[in-house]
Amino acid sequence: MDIGSFTIEVLSEGHFELFKDGHINRSKRTEHLATSPKDPSDSNSVMVGINPVLVQSGNHNILLDTGLGWGLDAGSQYTDVSNVCTNLRIFGLKPEDITHVVLTHLHYDHAAGASFTNMEAKTKPTFPNATYYVHKQEWDFALEQSEGQQLSYSERYRLDDFYRLVSDGRVTFLTDDSTEIIDGITAIKTGGHTPGHQIVILENDGEKVYYMGDLLPNEYQLNEYTMEKADIYPLEAKKKKVRLLQQVCEEKALLLFYHSGNGQAGHLFKDDDKKYILAKQLP
Ligand SMILES: [Zn+2]
After folding, report:
1. Does any domain span residue 239?
2. Domain around 203
3. What is the CA(128)–ligand 1 centre distance, in A?
4. How many domains, the chain?
5. pTM score, two decimals?
């Protein structure tokens, strides 16, 4: 789809089963997608889509989150999955063509595709020419978890590969609440889901798109402001969501959902009961 001079594509990796402890399976239960529980922590597992986003602007190719990256590693058991590289090929792009990667946070279902292990068992950036953008607060928190000071939230961080990207100087840590990555593409720190979680707002030619990361993972959470067990700071998440959804509605902006199974994009409206409804749009 086009937003002004930006071209936006959703690079869906398919549907997966996300378990309470944070691990993910390939799913055969796609029939539950339409009735996903409101709170992912309500049942033992929930169906999720994995949908990184590609934004093209002039000679910039920007990725928003990188997916699970299954099948990227040499010797991976997943040979038949649609990972971020196979999806880029559909649009005539090679990993070398990606110039910027913005990560909403470092949970592995968003960040694992950022790197891979090659035939010589060396960790490499999946996108060798890209600068990777992460909020500093996210990195600090992830490190704290991995170093075992506060293990309760550690299961969703798998930083081994990411250390390599950091030590190779591929990662730019953002420290402000709002940073313009390139003209019209801004990362906004929201916290809530994780302390350094950020969303991305795209703006071009008077049109706006909000990519909400895990602050609003799918359309089922539109009227559920907290995910008590999934958000580290539920109250902060709620405050940010209330304000941002008002903004999205007023600005008639488009919403993109990373974890949606069947409605990755749409515009927001309010019904007679002042509940949000989504007018789905094919990405
Ligand atoms: Zn997450």
Report:
1. no
2. 2-213
3. 25
4. 1
5. 0.91
